[in-house]
Amino acid sequence: MINSKTTHTLSVYVSNKPGVLARIAQTFSRRGYNVESLVVSPAIDGNFSRMTIGVSGATEGLDQIIKQVSKLIDVLHCSDHTFDDAVTKEMGLVKIAVGSEGRGEALQIAEHFGCKAVDLTEKSIMLQVVGDPDKIDALMGMLQKFKIIEIVRTGKVVMSRGIETT
Amino acid sequence: MEKITMDGGQAIMKSLEAEGVEYIFGYSGGSVIPIFDAMMTTNTNIKFVLVRHEQGAAHMADGYARATGKPAVVLVTSGPGATNVITGIMTAHMDSVPMICLTGQSVSWMIGKDAFQEADIFDISMPVVKHSYLLSSPNDIPRTIREAFHIATTGRPGPVLIDVPKDMSAGPMTGDLHAEMDIPGYQTHENGEINAEHISDIAEALSTSKKPLFLVGHGVMISGAQDAMREFAEKLNVPVTTTLLGKGAFPETHELSLGWLGMHGSAYANKAICDCDLLVNIGSRFDDRILGDPSKFCKQAKIIHVDIDPSEIGKMIQPDIHCIGDALKVINALMPHVSELNTTEWLRKLDGWKEKFPFKFKRQGELKMQHVIDEFYKLSEGNAVVVTDVGQHQMWAGQFYKTDHANNFLSSGGAGTMGFGLPAAIGAQFGRPDDLVICFCGDGGFQMTLFELATAAIHKLPIKIVVLNNHYLGMVRQWQELFYEDRTHGVDLEGNPDFVKLAESYGIKGFNLRRSGDVRRIINAALDYNEGPCLINCECEKTDNVFPMIPAGKPIEDMLIEAPKPHVKLEKPTGST
């Protein structure tokens, strides 16, 4: 049954109540969907929060999950922005082991991707990158030639373009 | 704004009274003592029923709600008290039954520290509730209870759990007893506009159909649309089949009725599904018990799905047309747009099948469960509230006790919870004290909750408890016989007690029924007995099987109308259970 796997970006607007995240997570896991990224932040009105959820699984059936998430009492709405004209951004930090020898090349790559070096030591550089997830993937690819010590990504956030709310 | 000082327990009782609660079914324990105390100090009119096991309380509240349409309250203590109601909550959730479950909890500062009788019931119950709360201030009690009742009873009903830490019920409540609800994310689709385009699409589809069929579910009764449904079907002259839980949504003795469909439903309803050209589902969720193989279900027909829950549309079956809304509102919206269809030929064909493939059994020889049920149907003139447990007897009760009125056939459909029958019958009798309640149980399910005999006896509830006893878990044995080359295992209930003596030890009148020839006499005696509950132990044929049967996961076309010949080897079913 499961085919055409895509990573979907869902935006969920919720009441700021205990358990709301657990309820949403359960809805996904029960139907075999894997949450790949999750960002929760307070909305303008502090009684509500905005979640941006990256989820992978069959496209068929995702509609069903969106309806089930929407049905949760603490969820005001849930929508899929995967194919929308929306702005999707993510931030990543990457730490590479690099001494004086490769530093120049590393910083060149960083500059190309618009990264900031946020920490620099004799043996390491930490870079901060902001952009759409593909750009961050590409940067990580380019940095493979160095020894990557660790990577942390925030997960993507999404916002609809224009005057409409997400 | 009315500010009063009382304790949380008293606020709970006042809030429950404001919701019109008639009964609380429950069991006491350390963390709920303040609530029990509040029943005394508020001198409440709400009646408390002390059960013998928390699962019983949940099924009683469930039976009460199914029989009356009103929610009842379950009140149990923390830890094991709370976990013991999970089966009952899940049973109600699967069948969209409203219920409010109050669970005690440790004091809030001990939560998460493995306190005595602490269980994280808020999280444990999450997948089986419509919604749940963990109280964090006594002042939230009135609003929370109001919201809980609103959520449990509106839209698609379901159970709501409120976890009450002991310091919430014991602490002072200084908030507003009439606090407003605050649930901006809750949309019921109950009062929403019915989509006019969908209505005209459905009316159009009906007008061009030659072989239309209504499939009616529990949703029609939840909506109170049974009379409108009847008028609608009569106006159009369209036949009606119901789901098992839909029994009563349309009178089964009506000439347009095909009875209920599905795995053990009528052969003629199932044949109609395979032959209709338009299937209009109102208030059923296309459960797997009626679909067989979903990918082959009703392929020849156009399908319309009417449901109040948008997440049911396309979950199992992708309809050609759908309409979201309350069944009564949708039917009322459709009514002016439809007129009588020429279905004479279609109805004649269906009548032919009704005549050719009736439900049947032999009245001679060993005592048959069907015979007992059929005789109860006749002698009670079809007017009883029938409550079943789960298994073969449940299917036969569906087949042989025809249901003409809404909320008169109560059964655990979605969950298939053994042990549901007796406590649910007790709840139903509390809710409908003037009606005859007959509880059909198997010997397996009965033993799962038989301790509630005490509850029935104490309150002198005149329930007819019919134990259809074949000393087997008959439905599983039937599967083993048919699909597993008769390797019966784990189904022989040797060691059953003498149920009549057991009943008598609770002060309950008992009857033994062993011979086909005695059926009428003993049932008459049981029906005449009105001093309280009575139990009729029926020693039935051990290895009878239920037919018709659609093997799980098979297309409806593969229905076995009768027992296959002994040499026929059937494949193991691919569908769920």
Task: Annotate the secondary structure layout.
The complex is a heterodimer of chains A (166) and B (577).
Chain A: E1 5-15, H1 20-30, E2 34-42, E3 48-58, H2 62-71, E4 75-80, E5 86-97, H3 100-112, E6 116-120, E7 124-131, H4 133-142, E8 147-153, E9 157-160
Antiparallel strand pairs in A: 1-3, 1-4, 2-3, 5-7, 5-8, 5-9, 6-7
Chain B: E1 6-7, H1 8-18, E2 23-26, H2 33-41, E3 47-50, H3 54-68, E4 73-76, H4 80-83, H5 86-94, E5 99-105, H6 121-124, E6 131-134, H7 141-153, E7 159-165, H8 166-170, E8 172-173, H9 196-207, E9 212-216, H10 218-222, H11 226-236, E10 240-242, E11 257-260, H12 267-275, E12 278-282, H13 288-291, E13 302-307, E14 321-324, H14 327-334, H15 344-356, H16 369-379, E15 385-388, H17 392-400, E16 409-410, H18 421-431, E17 437-442, H19 443-448, H20 453-458, E18 464-469, H21 474-483, H22 499-505, E19 509-513, H23 519-528, E20 534-539
Parallel strand pairs in B: 2-3, 2-4, 4-5, 5-7, 6-7, 9-10, 9-12, 10-11, 12-13, 13-14, 15-16, 15-17, 17-18, 18-20, 19-20
Antiparallel strand pairs in B: 1-8
Verbal overview:
The complex is a heterodimer of chains A (166) and B (577). Chain A is 27% helix and 44% strand. Chain A is an alpha+beta fold and 166 residues long. Chain A has two domains: 5-83, Alpha-Beta Plaits (2-Layer Sandwich); 87-158, Alpha-Beta Plaits (2-Layer Sandwich), CATH 3.30.70.1150. In chain A, strands 5, 6, 7, 8 and 9 form a five-stranded antiparallel beta sheet that branches. In chain A, strands 2-3-1-4 form a four-stranded antiparallel beta sheet, with helices on one face. In chain A, strand 6 and strand 7 form a beta hairpin. The model of chain A has no long low-confidence stretch (mean pLDDT 91). Chain B folds into three domains: 6-173, Thiamin diphosphate (ThDP)-binding fold, Pyr/PP domains (Rossmann fold), CATH 3.40.50.970; 196-356, TPP-binding domain (Rossmann fold, 3-Layer(aba) Sandwich), CATH 3.40.50.1220; 369-547, Thiamin diphosphate (ThDP)-binding fold, Pyr/PP domains (Rossmann fold, 3-Layer(aba) Sandwich), CATH 3.40.50.970. Helix content of chain B is 35%, strand content 16%. In chain B, the strands form four sheets. Chain B has a six-stranded parallel beta sheet, sandwiched between helices. Chain B has a six-stranded parallel beta sheet with strand order 11-10-9-12-13-14, sandwiched between helices. By secondary structure, chain B is of the alpha/beta class. At the A-B interface, helix 1 and helix 2 of A face strand 6 of B.
